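Quick bug: DNA-3-methyladenine glycosylase output formatted oddly.
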Amino acid sequence: MCKRCLWLDESKPDYVTYHDQEWGVPIWDDRKLFEFITLESAQAGLSWYTILKKRENYRAAFKEFDVQKVASMSDQDVDILMDNKGIVRNKAKILATINNAQRFIEVQSAFGSFAKYQWAFVDFTPIINDIKSKDDYPTTSEISEKFAKDLKKRGFKFLGPTTVYAHMQACGMVNDHDNDCHRKQPLISLIETLDLAKQLRK
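Here's what came back:
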């Protein structure tokens, strides 16, 4: 039986799938990064599993996470979303998603891609943390503080240091799998054979 991270509730098959297949895998695709930015900002103040269960509803509600389409959503769209029981019906978070899409596009224009902007905060190399117990899990870091501060300066909303750190974990900027987790070493090995800076220049 393979070992998994201590935080994972293994009684939830969809949570196990997310942990085994996605959490901590490096992402440099902008649509996927916008998806995680959207889901993490929606999660603020809630459990991640709450949002994970609503993920497909978010995908449908927010145009398959097409950032251009989300950035163009209207007040009428907001009203429709407020009636959508499949997502978190928090108007401030819905408006923040539309705002963040607009800001996301501005970052793409300035840096060539959001991925280039984001990964520069860790010099295009994932940080590998030493996780031996539940007490070792970081919830924020000096880099997430810097990243969140820069996002705020650029006009992003609902993306404070803790939320940004969760985003960093999800998309592989940090490897916070437990030392004994079966996913820890494969992701380390992946990075050893992957030139992220080269991938982002494509």
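Actually, after a second look the formatting is fine. Residues 25 and 73 are 30 Å apart (CA to CA). Closing.
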